[in-house]
Every structure is written in C-alpha cells, then in structure tokens.
Write a structure and sequence with these properties.
This protein is an alpha/beta fold. It has eight helices and seven strands; from the N terminus they run H-E-H-E-H-E-H-E-H-E-H-E-H-H-E. A seven-stranded parallel sheet has the order 3-2-1-4-5-6-7, sandwiched between helices. Helix 2 (49-60) packs parallel to helix 3, helix 4 packs parallel to helix 5 (137-161) and helix 5 (137-161) runs parallel beside helix 6.
Amino acid sequence: MTHTSRRALLALAAAVPALAAARASAQDAPGSPSPNAGRAAIVTGSSRGIGAATARRLASDGYAVTVNYLTNADLAAQVVQEIEWAGGRAIARQADVADPAAVGALFDACVQAFGGVDVVVSNAGIMNTAPIAQFTDEAFDRMMATNLKGSFNVLREAARRVRDGGRIIALSSTSMTQKRATHGPYAATKSAQEMLCGSLAKEVAGRRISVNAIAPGPTNTELFRVPPAVMQQAVAAIPYGRIGEPEDIANAIAALCEADGEWINGQLVFANGGFF
C-alpha cells in the first residue's frame, strides 16, 4: 500500500462522519430538496452486487440513475423498480462496455432521459482465475476486453461528457496488492484502474471533476464464492470480523460523490474493512 493510497483512505474515513451528518440534517428538514436534484449518474454492471447497491445508494442521495447491464435484463429492471418504489428516478439500458459504440449509446440514453451526466461509476467486470501456465487465450482476452478495455471505454466517454463538478470512479480491487496465485491476470486488470484514474484526474484539470479508483476487499458478491476455509481466512484478516457487503462499498463510493469529497482526487481508495 503506497503512502498516497494510505492518505486517501484516511481522508475518506475522516470525511464519512461529516457527510453522514449532513445527509441526516438534510433529510430532517421537511420539504428540503436533495442537493443532487437535477444530477444524473451512470453505473455500469449494476444489475446486481456492488453495482446494484451503488445504483440504489446514489438514487437515495437524489441522483437519477442509469442502470447498465449486459445480459441480466430482469435483474436490472428489478433495481429500477426498487429505486422508483423508494421515490427515485432510474432507467435500465443494455450495453457491453467492451464495445465503444455501445458505451456511447449508454451515455446518450442517460442524457436523453435526465439531461446530462454528473457521476460515472465504472463497475462492470468479470473474474477468471487460473495458473498463468494454464490460462487460456479466450479467458484472458475476454477479461481484458471487459475489465481493461471496457473500463477505458467508459472512462474515455466520461471524460468527454461528464459535466463540470462531476465524479468519475472506477472499481479496482484489493487483490492487486496480494500477488495471489491464479489471480495474476485479474489483478493486472484491476491495477490498471489506478493508473487510468490517476492520469485522467490530471487531464480533466480545471473542470472540478474528481477521478478516483476504489478497491474493495472480500465482498459478498458472485465474484467472491470461495471454499469455507478461504472464507474463514478472509474473515479472520478483517478487523470487523466479517467480509464486506455490497452496501459497504456503495457507501464509500457515495462519500466520494459528495461535494465534501471533492478534495480526494486521483487516488486509489481502499474500501476493505482493514483487510491487508
């Protein structure tokens, strides 16, 4: 863990209580409009897991949300329904992030529905694991197309279209620090997120857009289905005595999206409950 990443994590931890208090104060004021009214977010890969939790959380914070999916149309529709039942606004749009034209159409849909784009969370990703000697070209190419090229496509479109003062966030992973056997190619795609976001933060200078990568640790999603012994090791390595839930990561993402999170920029932020 670099000194820069450690400072970013400490800054985020310090910001969370103040942000929570500000949200509570705003909610307690009758008829008080959301500070994010009129703002819109795109969350890729948000039909389930961390993406779905992030879509719901941003909607609860007042953003109109574009829920993106690749194949899980029913699950995406359910996320939209949950948001609407809670009083929020959302649409679901299919797009393969590995396809630049599809990513452009996804942004078009958000602009047409909600008037613009203010927050982009590049979350879509897959995980293939195997020893490098046994890793197939097909599995490697598919993961690179989704995790690396896909994130690049989303970040590039975000750089062009996010409105001034917006937020761009890409999902990395704590696994990139572990150097675990069978995880090399996956960790490489996630390590790249820090480099992409750090460069992009400088490239959008002057527009008050913050760009960060966030690195979850073991989290209760489809990507973390492991044998009981591995689960026990993960739980033992986290001071809270549990693995993360998608909502834990969504809360950290939401903190970065707050106005008070602006000064965290160009960083890799670890959201892992202390897992190292």
